[in-house]
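May I ask for an example protein's residues together with how it folds?

___
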Amino acid sequence: MLGAIEAGGTKMVVAVARDAEAILARRELPTTTPAETFAAIADFLVEHAPFDAIGVASFGPVEVNPVAPNYGSILKTPKPNWSGASFIDVLKRFNCPVAVDSDVNGAALAEWRAARGAGVDNLAYATIGTGIGVGVVRGGRTLAGMHHFEMGHIRPSRDAASDPFEGVCPFHGACLEGLASGPAVIKRWGKPLSELGPDAVVLIARYLGEMCLTIILTHMPDRIVLGGGVMKTGGLIEAVRAETRALLNGYIGAARLSGDLADYIVRPALGENAGVTGALLLAADAAK
């Protein structure tokens, strides 16, 4: 039996499965305090134990280096009470391997697996929701260095005269997350992007287009998947494709980057199940 936790800043999804193909049971839990949330996770998992392995795809920053003494712990985060919270501590009672990666890496892994038949070897997954993050998979392995990638904190170009909003990121102000995440949109306009007009959509697409350009130039993925609550806004993904194409300006001659990018910058094929499926794949790999 495999256990999986998709740990988001707003909610947690906990699931069990014999393999990553078919979820046997799942439960959504609100992300409150670590003590309350971890207790609810453990209560669900106990019902289905024992496990061969458990995978965690977590919001970050989270320590993903397996040899680090704080592996599986949330690092410095603006989310109250969660800095230092450890998934390893709460899951060690199950006496099985535990694999921890970032939530976007987990979702990227799941979307990569779903896209294998389309000749996609390298894939980037970006979530634009409560925060902004990017995960990259190459040849079936998630990429990281001394830490998982933090592309949501890249600072895009911003004309302060036309866009005086200084961003909401407590660390970097007007980074991508500070300008284009769900909380940034609400702070700026007082309502979600889905309730705003085309001018707001064009502005957010401008920043997300810069994100996609950066992903392309630094990782050259075969596909970019854009998920998260903000991306459900009507017309946004089309505007991001157009902005990305304009920023590329024909520089990369790859066939995948021709046309309107409708087959290149796409919505998640797995929908809301991308993250938890990725956590199951992490568990399956850890169980080998």
Q: What stands out?
A: The first strand starts at residue 2 and ends at 7. The chain has two domains: 2-102, 116-268.
